[in-house]
Design brief:
With about 110 residues, the protein is mainly α. Helices cover about 85% and strands about 0% of the residues.
Length: about 110
């Protein structure tokens, strides 16, 4: 891509020197312009990520609410199961009593 526009940045000489040293020390930038371009692009990406992080956080809160609802449903089902188990146990005990009574009465004949 042909670069056909420019921006003039005013800064003190110490800052420019520090930036140039950074370019030379790290070797991942072609020159000072490349450093500035990459920093600006990184900042833009960070700003966009901040927005998407807010969206992600909102979605996470929604999912947490869904999990809470599912947990409440599971608790209700668990309570129903426990009540039915207690009822079944009670019915089994009564059935055993009736069968024992029948056995006793049949034994008397």
């Amino acid at each position: 891509m042909v670069k056909d526009d420019q921006i003039l940045i005013r800064l003190n000489s110490e800052q420019k020197k520090a930036w140039k040293e950074h370019v030379e020390e790290h070797g991942k930038y072609r020159d000072l312009t490349d450093l500035i371009e990459q920093c600006v692009e990184d900042r833009i990406t960070d700003d966009e990520d901040e927005f998407s992080l807010e969206d992600d956080l909102e979605m996470l809160y929604y999912e947490i609410d869904e999990v809470k609802d599912q947990n409440n449903n599971l608790k209700q089902l668990s309570e129903k199961i426990e009540r039915r188990q207690a009822t079944n146990q009670s019915l089994e005990e009564k059935m055993d009593e009736v069968l024992n009574k029948i056995d006793r009465e049949m034994g008397n004949f």
